[in-house]
Write a structure and sequence with these properties.
The chain is α/β, with parallel strands linked by helices and about 250 residues long. The chain is built from 8 helices and 7 strands; from the N terminus they run βαβαβαβαβαβαααβ. It has a 7-stranded parallel beta sheet, with helices on both faces. It starts with a strand and ends in a 14-residue tail after the last strand. The mean pLDDT is about 95.
Length: about 250
C-alpha cells in the first residue's frame, strides 16, 4: 500500500503517517516545514520497515502541487490512499471584523489545496480503477458556531466536495470517506490564535479533548476495511461535545 498524506508535519497528519507506517504502508508525506518533514521521515525509517518519500511544498500553490507530485517516480504514483489532511483555522472574529488575509489563507488551504492535490492524484487512481480518498473535515462543516464563519464555510465546502467526489468516482471503484473531528488538542488552536498559547490552551479547559492519535486510529480503520465496505461519513467528538456549539465543561 502507498499512502499520500498532506499536512504531515504535525497534528492529525503526523499521527496518521505514524499509524499507517505501523501497519506497513509506504508513505508520501508532504508539508510546508522542511525540518519537521525530515524529522518525521527519519523517525518512520528508523522505526518501521517501510519506504518514505517526502515532498516539501504548500498546498495553496497549484504550481507547486502539480510540479512536486508529478515529479515523483512512477512507482510512487500508484497511490492507494490519499489523505487530504492539510488545513487550518486563522483568526476567530465576527464576520464584520474579519481579516481578509485570514479568510484567504483558510480558503486557499482548506478548499483549494484539497482540490489541487485531488485533481493531480485522482487521474492516477481512475487509470487504475482503484483507490481511496479520505478527506479530513470537521464538525465545523456540520454546524456553524459563533465567530467560525469563514472556517466553517471552508469545512462545509469540504463536506459538499466530498459528497460530489463520491458520486463522480463511483463508476471508477474509488472509495471516498470524510472524517470529521470535533474538539482535538493539536496545534490547531495555537495556529488559529497566531501563537497565543494561553488562548489556545483555554479552548480545551474543563474537558478531555480528542488527541491526534484518536483520529489516526479512525482513519486507519476506514482505510483498512474490505474492498466492498466504505465508511462514507464519520463524525467523531470527545465525550463532552455534542456538536460544534455544545461542549460540557466541568
Amino acid at each position: 500500500m502507498i499512502t499520500l498524506i498532506t499536512g504531515a508535519t504535525s497534528g492529525f497528519g503526523r499521527a496518521i503517517a505514524l499509524k499507517f507506517a505501523e501497519h506497513g504502508s509506504d508513505l508520501i508525506i508532504t508539508g510546508r516545514r522542511k525540518g519537521k518533514l525530515e524529522e518525521l521521515e527519519h523517525i518512520i525509517k528508523d522505526t518501521y520497515d517501510v519506504k518514505v518519500f517526502s515532498l516539501c511544498f504548500d498546498v495553496r500553490s497549484h504550481e507547486a502541487v502539480k510540479e512536486e507530485l508529478e515529479s515523483v517516480p512512477h512507482f510512487w504514483k500508484e497511490i492507494d490512499v490519499l489523505v487530504n489532511n492539510a488545513g487550518l483555522a486563522s483568526g476567530m472574529s465576527a464576520i464584520h471584523e474579519g481579516e481578509i488575509a485570514d479568510w484567504e489563507v483558510m480558503i486557499d488551504t482548506n478548499v483549494k489545496g484539497l482540490l489541487y492535490v485531488s485533481r493531480t492524484v485522482l487521474p492516477w487512481m481512475v487509470a487504475r480503477q482503484k483507490g481511496h480518498v479520505i478527506n479530513i473535515g470537521s464538525t465545523a462543516g456540520k454546524d456553524a458556531y459563533p465567530n467560525g464563519n469563514v472556517y466553517c464555510g471552508t469545512k462545509f465546502a469540504v463536506d459538499a466536495i466530498t459528497k460530489s467526489m463520491r458520486i463522480d468516482l463511483l463508476p471508477h471503484k474509488i472509495k471516498v470517506t470524510a472524517v470529521n473531528p470535533g474538539a482535538a488538542e493539536t496545534e490547531f488552536s495555537l495556529v488559529r490564535f497566531k501563537g497565543d498559547s494561553a488562548k489556545a490552551k483555554s479552548v480545551y479547559q474543563g474537558f478531555d479533548p480528542l488527541q491526534a492519535e484518536d483520529i489516526a486510529e479512525i482513519v486507519w480503520f476506514a482505510a483498512s476495511r474490505p474492498p466492498h465496505v466504505v465508511l462514507n461519513d464519520i463524525v467523531v467528538t470527545p465525550l463532552a461535545q455534542a456538536s460544534s456549539v455544545f461542549i460540557h465543561r466541568s
